[in-house]
């Protein structure tokens, strides 16, 4: 099922940048302005958020809407393609909540015996 | 649900290395020797496979078994923790088969208009 150049790698590469999944997940409730996203996502800088939004837009997962207001207003929202990725992201997050501590404990044991 | 230092990031970081998911998935049928894994996974070098196996072992997802034979034989197999990650990996791979082409098409359009 897996080969070096196969489609599955597209999905894992998409979620390789940790912030990609976090931004997609945070937009599940609807389009938001960058400032709103930053308030909801702890620890992301304006620069990293901007790069993540552009990367996800470039991959067809987000769409950018600009409103002619003073000052101009921009919102980002999930495309249908982006919304379809929320399921696998949820599966990963659910696994993480159940097992992240076991992974971290194994890594600590590994460091201690290194 | 997501914050900068939350557990979900452990999961996405684990699958950030594209080969991690491919190796875990290939081991779903049972323990295998590195040579068998390389034969099943197209495009992975011995060095990258070795690093991936050690990284997954370090995270508690794989276990390494050495057999006293001549020459010595080594196998890698999924731990229970590793097997529990196959579900989310399948969800990602299934999404990729359905949508990877749409992502690649969006990226090509983006490059064309850049």
Walk me through the structure.
The structure is a homodimer of 114-residue chains. Chain A is mainly α. Chain A has a single domain (8-113), classed as Winged helix-like DNA-binding domain superfamily/Winged helix DNA-binding domain (Arc Repressor Mutant, subunit A), CATH 1.10.10.10. Chain A contains six helices and two strands, in the order ααααββαα. The first copy, chain A, has helices spanning 8-14, 18-26, 34-40, 46-58, 80-84, 86-113; strands spanning 62-67, 73-78. Chain A has a two-stranded antiparallel sheet with strand order 1-2. In chain A, strand 1 (62-67) and strand 2 form a beta hairpin. In chain A, helix 2 packs across helix 4 (46-58). The longest helix of chain A has 28 residues, at 86-113. The relative contact order of chain A is 0.14. The mean pLDDT of chain A is 87. Chains A and B meet through helix 1, helix 2 and helix 6 of A and helix 1, helix 2 and helix 6 of B. Chains A, B: It holds the Pfam family HxlR. Chains A, B: InterPro entries: HTH_HxlR, WH-like_DNA-bd_sf, WH_DNA-bd_sf. Chains A, B: Residues 6-104 form the HTH hxlR-type domain. Chains A, B: One of its GO terms (molecular function) is DNA binding. Chains A, B: This is Helix-turn-helix transcriptional regulator.
